[in-house]
Amino acid sequence: MVDTRFLSVAVATLLVAGTVVGLATASPPRPGTEGNGLTENQSATLWSHDADNYTSETSYRQRYGEHRTALQQVANGTDITFTQPPETAATWTRHDFRDLHASGPQTSIHLPTADLEDSVFIADAHAAIFAAQPATRAHRAADSTTRYLAPNGTVRGFVDYRIRYPDSSTSEQRHVDWSLLSHEISSVRLLQDGSRLVTSPGSHTAVLHYQLNDTGETRIALEATIQVRVQKIVRIDGTVVERTTRTDSVSVSDSLTGTVYDLSAYPYYATYPNGDAGVAIFQPEPWRGYTLTENGSASVRGVWRFYTARDTSWDTLVRSTGDGDTQMASDAIPVSVHAYPSRIGPIAEPVRTGPSIIQTWGENHSAPTSTIGDDVHIDVVTRNYTPTHGLAVRADRVDRQALRVSGIVRGVNATISQPPTGLRRQLHQSTLTAQVVSQTESEATVRLTLHDAVTGKPIALGQSNRYPILRSSHDGFITINDQRVTTNASGVAVVTLEDPGIYTARYQPESWLNTDPAYVSDRASVRWHPLGTLEGWFALLIGAGWRLLPFAVMFYAGYRLLRLFDVDRFQHP
């Protein structure tokens, strides 16, 4: 079964009805037909570049006379994604590489896009990098993908060629024969930016283990030298009159570019008044997340998820001979790991009882959907997104010595550098008070006061602070009645309210990542109504009197009118 720690969500496609030959038409091998070092379930999760044609279990059983597991059925109609770079791609590639073979000195097997080299006696010579692993191709933006290479890894390469020399010729007395004495790949070399890393004995299928130098963008080149010795024999009337040995050689190469993926983590810590711990980590390159405890029970991960897909350039090979070229399906298909930003977004685990993500940050990027391909259906973001270069969490417990930071390349974890004392912050409790200092019948003036709960020192907002991790952002503020206000150097802010009611003022502190000292939030309530003062009651009576005056005038006028016409006399004779 697939390791459920890696399996997160299913979202795209693949065919199970096919053989290795079918890979040229986007069909993976049928489960159980390949000896690839993986279980049938693990093999089923590999093929994310294949068509979305689901084969029902009934049709599959009728066609092959066997059943599939539940995961195989799911993988037949979806692409499987992972929460961390899986090892299955490298395992498949390592085993499938053994199926790549040369076909003898008269035949050259090569990719359709191979850069072929010819010399006097050598034709269709080439070198091709089959795979460099561990590695991950990150889909970062609409026009940007980056191949990240582990500092220590393995390159697998294929080298092939064919021998050509003139055919034997015969005249009336003169006969010329050509024969092959020897041919070999004398050496295979791996270079980084022109400097040799590894040299190995010649082989059609070279496996070179490397340790990359430096960091950042780099170019890896696979080079090979091919040598041939042929013999020319000239006979006249059956007698050898010339025996000549000719040698020839050619160098071939293939290269790829990538970025050496080497992480160094610099955590920042904080302690909340209630004993909770805060941790923040920033990385300029994409990274996966970190664990907070020794047993890994609490962790946080960013936007990156993973899928595996074959390198489609190896679907078809070309067989070149002296008679021409023919295409054939490849018996060896490399599989690589891809990273993409997921719509699921950052997640802290355990989901309900685990740490809380308090802040994420990074530069805005466009959605990378155009770089993934039509046949890959995954939960990739479809609009601009913010990659989680920075992740800050709050948890009830953090084991700083057990903090582990993992990258998007399999097996690459960050070296953790403990921060200086100034970046280990103790969060202070804040005290916010609200008081009505004056009011009229139409408005009230409220005084907000913010202090450090322990030292009593005023907390001034809107001041210039230091930003050790982030670039400039908003300082802390107080909200009341949909207004955002800041305190002065005395920790005081004054607000005018025009509508009677009960108001709650909330202190929203700036993140402890950006300011020192740092505080936790607080709130205070205040009530205002015009009847809360003597002036308010007086204004109420005056206002009511003016509103009742017309009715009193009308009553008095009606009373006088009735007396004028002596209405009472008619009613009481």
How many beta-strand segments?
33
Helical proportion, percent range: 10-25%
| Tally of contiguous helical segments | 7
Distance between the termini: 112 Å
pLDDT < 50 stretches:
1-26, 465-474
Largest beta-sheet characterization = 10 strands, mixed
Instruction: Give the structural class.
Output: mainly beta
Radius of gyration: 39 Å
What is the mean pLDDT?
84
**C-alpha geometry:** elongated
Taken as a percent bin, the fraction of beta residues is: 35-45%
Provide an overview of this structure.
The protein is mainly β and 573 residues long. The protein has helices spanning 40-44, 57-64, 70-77, 88-96, 369-372, 534-564, 567-571, and strands at 7-10, 80-82, 108-110, 122-141, 144-163, 169-170, 174-192, 195-201, 205-211, 216-236, 239-260, 264-265, 268-271, 277-282, 287-291, 299-301, 304-310, 316-321, 324-329, 335-341, 347-349, 356-361, 390-395, 404-407, 415-416, 424-426, 430-439, 444-452, 477-480, 483-485, 492-497, 501-508, 522-528. The strands form eight sheets. Strands 4, 5, 6, 7, 8, 9, 10, 11, 17 and 20 form a ten-stranded mixed β-sheet that branches. Strands 22-23-14-13-26 form a five-stranded mixed β-sheet, with no helix packed on it. A four-stranded antiparallel β-sheet has the order 21-16-15-24, with no helix packed on it. It starts with 6 loop residues before the first strand and ends with a helix. The model is unreliable at 1-26 and 465-474 (pLDDT under 50).
